[in-house]
Design a protein that fits this description.
The complex is a heterodimer of chains A (about 270) and B (about 130). Chain A has about 270 residues and is α+β, with helices and mostly antiparallel strands. Chain A is built from 11 helices and 9 strands. Chain A starts with a helix and ends with a strand. The chains are: A alpha+beta (about 270), B mainly alpha (about 130). Chains A and B meet through helix 2 of A and helix 3 and strand 1 of B.
Chain lengths: ~270, ~130
C-alpha cells in the first residue's frame, strides 16, 4: 500500500523536525551564531560632536613661541607625511590667515592682533556636509554622532569632495605616503598603530574617531590642554550642559562661511 | 589531402608550442603553502573563531570588521566562545600573527591573491 497524502505530510513534518535538530542544522545555523556575535559594543554617545576654538588663547601662545603642538601631534598620530611641497600638502589641522578663514568678514579697523594672524582650521564636520552629498561611493559619510569621516577602503579618488568642500579641508594623496621625502619624514610611519593611506585617495581630519571611540578627547585637544592653552574645546552640542554649549552661551562666536548653509560644527570665539 | 606534409608539420609545431609551458614547468611544482604560527599564536590555540572558519573565511570576517568598525563604530567583536576582540587587522590580528611573510603571504602568494590591505595598513617589522 502506498503512502497517502496525510501520511506523507506527517512523515515530512517529523523528518523536518528531526533534521533541524540534527548536525546538519547546526552547520546551517552556525553562521547565524557568528552574525549574532558580531553586535558591537557602542562606546561613546553624543549626538553632535563639535569644537569651540578660543582663538585668543591660541594666538597668545602662537605669538609667544610659534606653537604648532596640535598640528604636530595630529600628524604624528595619523601618519600624515610632510611632502615639502604645498601642492601635495596633506592637511588635517593647519593654520590659515584671518582673511582666508573668514573671507566674508573683511571688517575694517579690527584689532591688528587678529586680522593678520594665523587661525587654526580643520574639517568643520558640517551638519549639512557637501562632501558627503557628492561622494559617489559613500566613502565619506556622516556618522550619527555628527562626525564626518571617511571609509578609506571605498574612496576611489574622484576628488568630487575636494571640489565640494568650501573650506579646503580635503587633501589628495598624489603619491603613497611611504614615498614622501625621507629627509622630511625620518621615522615615517610615526604611529604604527594607525594605518597610512594609499596613492589616489582623499583624506581629511576624522575628529579622531578611533580615539573618541575609546572615550578620549581628540589628540589636538589633548595636547592643547596639556600645554594649558585650552584653546580647543571638544564636546556635544546637543547637550545643553556641555562645555561647548557653555562657551557658546558665554561668548559671541563665529563660524566659517555661514552663508553657504553647510552649518559648520567648529565655532570660533575671537 | 593537398599539402598534407606541411599541415601535419604545422600542427605538430603548433601543438608543441601550446604544450611547451607544461613541459617547461614539468617537475617544478610550486611548494605547497606552509603558514607558520608564532609562539604567541600557538599559545592562543583558538583564533578569533574556530581555526576552520578562519582558514576558509577570514576575509569575510575582516570585511565585516572593517565595515562595522569604520562605518558603524562597533569596534569590539564578541567571539562565539565569549572572548571580546578589538576589531583591528593591524592591532589584533597581527599582534599574534606578527610574521606576515611566513603567515599571510604563504598562502596568498601560492594562490596569487593580492589583498591591498598592506597598501595602507602597517605590518609589524620582522627579524630577517
Amino acid at each position: 500500500m502506498g503512502v497517502d497524502r496525510r501520511e506523507f505530510l506527517k512523515i515530512a513534518g517529523y523528518a523536518a523536525l528531526f533534521g533541524l535538530g540534527g548536525k546538519a542544522a547546526i552547520e546551517i545555523l552556525a553562521p547565524g551564531d557568528l552574525e549574532a556575535a558580531m553586535e558591537g559594543v557602542p562606546l561613546t554617545e553624543a549626538k553632535r560632536w563639535s569644537m569651540v576654538i578660543r582663538m585668543r588663547n591660541c594666538l597668545e601662545k602662537v605669538e609667544k613661541d610659534g606653537c604648532r603642538e596640535c598640528i604636530t601631534a595630529c600628524h604624528h598620530v595619523h601618519n600624515v607625511p610632510d611632502w615639502g611641497n604645498p601642492r601635495h600638502e596633506i592637511k588635517w589641522i593647519w593654520k590659515e590667515p584671518y582673511q582666508h578663514t573668514f573671507p566674508n568678514q573683511p571688517n575694517q579697523f579690527i584689532d591688528e592682533g587678529i586680522s593678520d594672524k594665523p587661525f587654526i582650521v580643520l574639517c568643520n564636520h558640517c551638519l549639512n556636509p557637501p562632501c558627503v552629498r557628492v561622494c559617489p561611493t559613500k566613502a565619506t559619510f556622516k556618522r550619527e554622532d555628527g562626525i564626518v569621516t571617511m571609509d578609506m577602503h571605498r574612496c576611489i579618488g574622484c576628488r568630487f569632495c575636494m571640489a565640494a568642500c568650501p573650506y579646503g579641508s580635503r587633501s589628495f594623496n598624489w603619491g603613497s605616503p611611504r614615498k614622501a621625502p625621507k629627509e622630511l619624514n625620518s621615522n615615517f610611519p610615526t604611529n604604527r598603530d594607525y594605518p597610512e593611506r594609499s596613492k589616489g585617495v582623499v583624506e581629511k581630519c576624522n575628529f579622531c574617531v578611533e580615539i573618541v571611540a575609546k572615550g578620549q578627547l581628540p589628540v589636538c585637544v589633548q595636547v592643547c590642554d596639556k600645554i594649558k592653552v585650552h584653546a580647543l574645546n571638544f564636546g556635544d552640542l546637543d547637550d545643553p550642559g556641555s562645555n561647548v554649549r557653555r562657551l557658546l552661551r558665554e561668548h559671541y562666536s563665529v563660524r566659517r562661511k555661514p552663508a553657504l548653509g553647510t552649518e559648520p560644527n567648529i565655532f570660533y570665539i575671537i | 589531402m593537398y599539402d598534407g606534409g606541411k599541415i601535419i608539420a604545422g600542427l605538430i609545431i603548433g601543438i608543441g608550442l601550446l604544450l611547451a609551458p607544461f613541459f617547461y614547468n614539468a617537475g617544478t611544482a610550486a611548494k605547497a603553502p606552509d603558514p607558520q604560527l608564532t609562539p604567541k599564536a600557538k599559545e592562543a590555540k583558538e583564533c578569533v573563531t574556530t581555526a576552520l572558519y578562519m582558514k576558509s573565511s577570514h576575509f569575510s570576517l575582516l570585511d565585516e570588521w572593517r565595515h562595522t568598525a569604520v562605518r558603524e563604530n562597533e569596534r569590539y567583536f564578541k567571539s562565539p566562545n565569549g572572548k571580546i576582540y578589538y576589531k583591528s587587522l593591524q592591532l589584533t590580528c597581527l599582534d599574534c600573527h606578527s610574521n606576515k611573510s611566513k603567515f599571510c603571504d604563504q598562502c596568498h602568494n601560492y594562490l596569487n591573491v593580492v589583498p591591498y590591505c598592506w597598501d595602507c595598513h602597517i605590518a609589524p617589522e620582522e627579524k630577517k
